[in-house]
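Dear colleagues,

For the upcoming journal club I promised to circulate an example of a predicted protein-ligand complex. I picked one with NAP because it came up in last month's discussion. The inputs are reproduced below in full, followed by the predicted structure.
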Amino acid sequence: MIYRTLNNGIQIPMLGFGTFKASGEECEASVLAAIRAGYRLIDTAEAYNNEEYVGNAIAKSSVPREELFITTKVNFRSYENARAIVEQSLAKLQVEYLDLVLLHWPFGNYYAGWHQLEELYEEGKIRAIGVSNFNPDRLIDLLSFNKVVPVINQIETHLYCQRKNEHVWEDKYGVAHQAYAPLGQGKANKMFEEEAVQQLAVKYGKTPAQILLRFLVQSDVVVIPKSVHEARIQENIDIFDFELTVEEVAVLAALDQAAPMTGTPEKPEKVERAMTW
Ligand SMILES: NC(=O)c1ccc[n+]([C@@H]2O[C@H](COP(=O)([O-])OP(=O)(O)OC[C@H]3O[C@@H](n4cnc5c(N)ncnc54)[C@H](OP(=O)(O)O)[C@@H]3O)[C@@H](O)[C@H]2O)c1
């Protein structure tokens, strides 16, 4: 595993484990398999309704708490109640502190949510605070009028949606870039069939998924692929024994379509849809 240092000095693994749409016993089994396979960063959220199962897996793993990096998110409907929601996450996850808590979307009273996260951060209940789905304009707004600069922005990022512009703005303000849907949620599977990806897979004796994840990690993007299948869980973490060349990274970078599937709510209809959650 390799790590990067966040803007408050703490370290985050460059690869973690996603749990969106993983539920119940299947979620618990997949998180336990991930920790046993060597993942240390686990990503969950209030909205995923699986924090208890993630917590059970953490407890069963017997890995010392300080070796793990646990992220959760406060949903936008809970921002005015963020402190209580974080306390609830702590209880469900069965831990004394969280490594990272994110505002899930830039909707609703996110200033209220951020102020409460800032307090919890200062009290030591959370080691770092950040945001998710924030376009650069929202990010600049938030960090300009508050005390704590988010350590990270978690946004949809993969071969076809590389977020190069967002990355530049994040870099400028010292905000790390974290990719959700790094494998295109298993929907944008044409990525797996791209000729360049296939050729690199053959060259390095790796799978297309491993090439896609390695490309993002080498582009200074933290990835959190999700799978409920043990073979894929192992496959997705096995990306630290090879390195793409600068030229190969450039070839993959040129395949960007700047095409989010879910992504930030650039389009009003996406925001409308989100409000029905
Ligand atoms: N902040 C946000 O708004 C937000 C939004 C979405 C996601 N996230 C976070 O980011 C994490 C990752 O994103 P995601 O789960 O949406 O998408 P993803 O990790 O890009 O893709 C997951 C899908 O790909 C499949 N898959 C996994 N490994 C594979 C492999 N090696 N080969 C082929 N298919 C593979 C999985 O299937 P199986 O499970 O059947 O193996 C699953 O259907 C989430 O789990 C969640 O923690 C955050």
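Two points we might discuss: The domain at 3-274 is CATH 3.20.20.100 (TIM Barrel). The chain has twelve helices and ten strands.

See you all on Thursday,
B. R.
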